Amino acid sequence: MRIRDVLWYALSHMKKKKKRSFLTMLGVLIGIAAIVSITSLGNGFQVMFTRELENSLGVNTLTVTTTSFGGPSGSRQTYDTILYAEDADYIRNIDDVKAATAVKSVTGDVHIDNISYTLTIQGVNISEYAKIYESTFKTYSGSFENLENDSVVVGYNVAFPYGNETQAIHDEDNLTVTLTYRSGVQFITRNFTFTVVAILQQAGGFSQQDTALFVPLETVLDIYNITEVSYIVVSVESSDKIDSVKEKIKEYYHDEIAVNSSEALLSTMESMFSIMVLFVSAIAAVALIVAGVGIMNIMTVSVTERTREIGILKSLGAKDRTILGIFLAEAAVIGFLGGIAGIIFGLITANILGSQLFAMFSSGFSSSGGTHTLTTNTSLVITPIFDPLTGVMSLLLAVGLSIIFALQPAYNASKKDPVQALLYF
Questions:
Q1: Is the pTM of this model over 0.85?
Q2: Which residues contact 53 (CB under 8 A, 6 or more apart)?
Q3: Are 28 and 335 in contact (CB under 8 A)?
Q4: Strand intervals (E) in 39-155
């Protein structure tokens, strides 16, 4: 029999056993759908995460801190070096440095419409900070010019704390901030009044600027009567200059400091995502193994049911390889159709999950006692990214596994004695 005749014969038998063929195909469909949906969502999530992380960290940035990100083993190293505000002035004068600012982060309560919100207050050089995060640190209203010691730049969600278009804070408003600081052995809680000079555009994503206040660094240091800062953030002119600037900064601190680059962090995260997607896809592939066992069982039953048919075919001159080909063709068709349906179903599933289940958080605030905490708007929709190569490999895997698991029943069928097969009831 020609290959075309073998395929026609296999398909005609599948039409007679539609329900059985469909149920057998269903196992393949589920396995392929799981692989396609997981890889597509993983690729989409990786692209989304990288984009949002770039917006949050800035492009070509270095963070000078006393704690490293940790190496491949996950270890973290902490240095005893103290960072001072004046260090940023030295770093700013290094060749190929675009901007640099020291950052001192504190927490305070902000009073808006008789409601107290617990927020992060960032003491920074605001003009330098705007150069570093030029893609996200933009004004919704107001400007960064003519800054005074009591000036404050307000994050979008602070000005719009109710999750709608109701604006609670406007330019030139006075904002009362309650800070607790130490004076000798005593802790003092005191109210400070700042004047709003600008409201930031909404950054969204992973950026925390939407729920923060930004004030001049000197103001925070004066209030707390300190000189050390939390970290220093540096913007480099181009990506090819990052390593040289990093080495100069480490040399200034005699290698007793951690200089973490945004590119290194992004590269590490991308590698982690790739491994995670591969691992989860391998787990999903177990469903294909289960489907393969199902195909073997169905083929074994089919061979038993069609024993007389096999005897008739052999008595008419069909060779062993023809019988083998008929059963393997049935398995291949099941794998192929199940694979195609699985790819389509997997893409549909990935799009549904990407738009619904991965909307992580919503904007607004949650209450805890008498103090409210603003949350950043991180309602992110993941757009699944389908790799055609993954589709082709999944389809080949479906067909290949179907044939492999059908080999034993098909071989048994091809070796049946025609006389005994004809006498089978």
A1: no
A2: 206, 262, 265, 266, 269
A3: yes
A4: 61-65, 97-112, 115-124, 139-142, 151-154
